[in-house]
Amino acid sequence: MKSRRKFLQTLTVAGAAASLPIELMAEQAKKQKMIHQVFFWLNDGVDVKDFIKEASQLGKCKTVDKFYIGTPAPTEARDVVDNSYQVACTLFFDSIEDQNAYQVDPLHLKFIEKNSNKWSAVKVYDFVI
């Protein structure tokens, strides 16, 4: 009985210790700046310039620190380069919380409601810096 109890105590301590680095990393990530990159594949017939004008409004959301928008660069074709999208935007946030607030910002929600019929696909890449 003692050995089973000791085993369970050891297992509990080991489990808590194993999750500590994950919790610490999550806490540190909250304090880091965040980059949110969005790639749009537009439906046939959608005017890229008009779409860029609409999407540029996203840069006015309250928690956006920096905003860039553009089209694929005419770089040399390579296997690792995907330039099949039509428009991409990069948004900088001071924290993950700011990015979370952006997701429910009325300007962001209005953009999605008004323009989601203009893209066939969208891909997002988020990372902390």
Distance between the termini: 50 Å
Broad shape:
elongated
* Helix content bin: 40-55%
- Biggest sheet record: 4 strands, antiparallel
Could you give the count of β-strands?
Answer: 4
Taking pLDDT < 50 over at least 5 consecutive residues as the criterion, the unreliable ranges are none
Question: How many alpha or pi helices?
Answer: 4
The arrangement of helices and strands along the chain is HEHEEHHE
Radius of gyration based on Cα positions: 22 Å
How much of the sequence lies in strands comes to 15-25%
What integer is the average pLDDT? 89
Strand order of the largest sheet: 2-3-1-4
Structural class: alpha+beta
Question: Can you describe what's shown?
Answer:
There is one protein chain. The mean pLDDT is 89. It contains 4 helices and 4 strands; from the N terminus they run αβαββααβ. Helix content is 43%, strand content 24%. By secondary structure, the chain is of the alpha+beta class. The radius of gyration is 22 Å and the shape is elongated. The longest helix has 30 residues. Strands 2-3-1-4 form a 4-stranded antiparallel sheet.
